[in-house]
Amino acid sequence: MSEGRDFTHPWGHWMRLETGSHDVRLIDDDGTVWKSLRDALFYGRLGFPRVMNPGGRDSARDVELERLLAYLLLKMGDHPDRKASTSGLFDRGPDFFRFYTYWLAGAGLIAGGYNGSPYDARVTPEGRSIAAMLLATRPPEAMAYHPGLEAMGAVAEDAEEISRAQFQSARKFAIGMPYLFVREPLHRLPAISLLYKDPLSRMPIVRTIWAQTFEDVESRNLMFEWMKGRLPLWNKWGEMARTEGAAILTQRLFSLFLSELQIVLGSAPTPTKGRISPPA
Q1: pTM for the full model?
Q2: CA distances for 179 relative to 29, 127, 174, 211, 242, angstroms
Q3: Phi and psi for 192 in degrees, rounded to 5?
């Protein structure tokens, strides 16, 4: 289904977003419904099987998509870490590196090597289109790292979320993600904080520009999981807090959250046990 598509835009741009549904439903041009572009690429275009853990998450998907992204960027010469190499992505040894390189050629993401050698092949237009999409849809756990082994470890099944300390100390901090929401205690209450780190500053100190406390962990976690599902909006929300004030962001977040909750319930939301405390 790749023939005839325009790969000058991020991969999947041709899909249609179905309206009138709370869950994300992307309609491919063959009628297939996907929950995300990453699902469409991994399970559809690349043909990998769905292997879900007991928690309902396929931890292999994001790990392998981070590997693919790093490989493509390195092949394109667009990786932020100029000293990194494609072979460094394969800790299972040279045989796995060889297989992976041949597989990418067979999948049509690299082509045109000397005498057909995939080692000399260049990234195809579709491969570049895929890299653009993967860069735009990276999970929050990977955003503090350049694509590579560190990012793959961050999105692995048992990896911890990025903490304030990791965000502060990360040398491979992504310039495109100067904002990060974190779960942390505040005045002994469970809270979500919005951190800002100016990538252009000579002293890139992390500042807290917004915080919200909750009366119980369950309420805080419910809100945070909802926010994680909207990672592409984090920079926009961060700019809103930094330029318009924390109160404006608070109003925006809870208006969005409650409006979506109303769609799910089909009526006005029922108050939960946990109550939200005033903004910190």
Answers
A1: 0.58
A2: 35, 28, 10, 13, 10
A3: -120, 130
